[in-house]
Amino acid sequence: MLLRRKKSQIAVSLSLLMGMAFTATVNAEVSLQQAIEIQQSLLTLDTHLDTPANLVQPGFDIMARHSYDHDFNQVDVPRMQDGVLDGGFWAIYSSQGPLTEKGYQQSRDTAILRALAIHTMVSEHPKTFAFATDADQAAAIKAAGKHVVYMSIENAYPLGNDISLLETFYKLGVRMAGPVHFKNNQLGDSSTDPDGPKWGGLSPLGEQFVAEANRLGIVLDGSHAGDATVKDMMRLSKTPIMLSHSGSKAVYDHPRNVDDELLKQLAASGGVIQMNAYSSYLKKLPDNPKRSEAFKGFIAMMHESNGEADAAHYEKMQQLRRKIEHDYPAVSATFEDYMEHFLHTLKVVGPKHVGIGADWDGGGGVEGMMDVSSLPKITQRLLNEGYSKQDLADIWGLNALRVLKAADDYAKQPKLSQ
Questions:
Q1: Cβ–Cβ < 8 Å for 341, 256
Q2: What is the DSSP letter of 318?
Q3: Same domain, yes or no, for 230 and 90?
Q4: How does pLDDT run across 203-227, given as a tens digit for each residue?
Q5: Which one of 13, 224, 369, 392 has the fewest CB atoms closer than 10 angstroms to its CB?
Q6: Which domain holds residue 311?
Q7: Bridge partners, 177 (sequence order)
């Protein structure tokens, strides 16, 4: 009897120890190395890369390792490999000028040159990059060991009053386009125009823009658009829209961010929001008047070059920027601030409607994640928050590709003649 009791106690003790060991295994935090290995098995895309603006700058080589501290670039091939970034949407951006034919033509020419710069990057490095124009191509490009290059338009101001130009950009490879940027334009209202709304959403021409994007199979991008503009886009579009680089207004009430109600409407329509890492949209940052004043000189130098600086002028710009950063260092949001937006948005709409568009080379980057080499920290944090590998697969690429496929499928459907 005593022997049986001791055997029973030993069995219970072993069972408890095994249970404790199992619990410890389940609750063990994922290391950064483990996160990197998991991310390597996923298709990882960022839906807003402003790097094409760097492609035309003197001395920039996408194949060489750069440093944010030295030249303020955030995306290149070595750091993409470090950060396990397979690619994404490379943005064609041209700054907005006056709503005149001359302004439209100048912006159109700049936008076409940006598109050609992206094509040149791919053609010069065919073993490293490959174009993608539909959702199914991305996985095959990754399997071939190359980086994925989709193209997007940030701010459709270059179209002017000729919506048919959107087809020209479609033929160049564009598969996502947003109507506005910092200011209202001929297509609709921005979220940040200092003069407030002009159209109350999309303009009549903006409504034609939505219809043409649908016809072609271009995803509509609501980032930078005012809430009424986003609602008009969702109402009129035959396919889900994307917010390629936005944040949560519930976490920080900024016009560029989206409130929970609009997020729910976006998700209900099948759309996705891609989380932005632009510091001043993540939290209220302290004013720095001396830095702002110093930057006026830098901005003047930028305008002087009109985006096409020669090597000497560009180096002077870089030297001035480094001096400003040394004398009046920026205060940035932190990685935790970024994740607060990310986690809140996931709770509101779930992992089927959230992705990543950090605004690299366009102002994105936070303390602890200043370039693409740090992206596995997002994977690590989400896994440790309890999100699954399938959730990560959706967040890192499949959600955006689902929206792209919906746009393409609609465009290929036979339409009744009007």
A1: no
A2: H
A3: yes
A4: 999 999 999 999 999 999 999 999 9
A5: 13
A6: 288-331
A7: 153, 220
Number of domains, the chain: 2
Give the CA dihedral 167, 169, 175, 179, nearest 10 degrees: -90
pLDDT digits (tens, 9 = 90+) for 152-166: 999 999 999 999 999
Tens of pLDDT, residue by residue over 75-130, are 999 999 999 999 999 999 988 899 999 999 999 999 999 999 999 999 999 999 99
Out of 36-40, 144-148, 330-334, 406-410, pick the least confident: 330-334
**399, 370 Cβ separation under 8 angstroms:** no
Residue 52: what residue type?
Answer: P
For 21, the token pair is 């060991």
Which own/partner pairs from 131-136 qualify as long-range (CB within 8 Å, at least 24 positions apart)?
131/173, 132/87, 133/173, 133/175, 134/175, 134/404, 134/405, 134/408, 135/401, 135/402, 135/404, 135/405, 135/408, 136/405
pTM over 0.70: yes
**Residue 22 domain flag:** no
Question: Rounded CA gap, 138 and 143, in Å?
Answer: 9
* Alpha helix (H) residue ranges in 125-194: 137-143, 165-172
Nearest CA among 247, 252, 297, 98 for reference residue 183 = 98
pLDDT at 295: 79
For residue 82, give the CATH number of its domain. 3.20.20.140
CA dihedral 339, 342, 344, 347 (to 10 degrees): -130
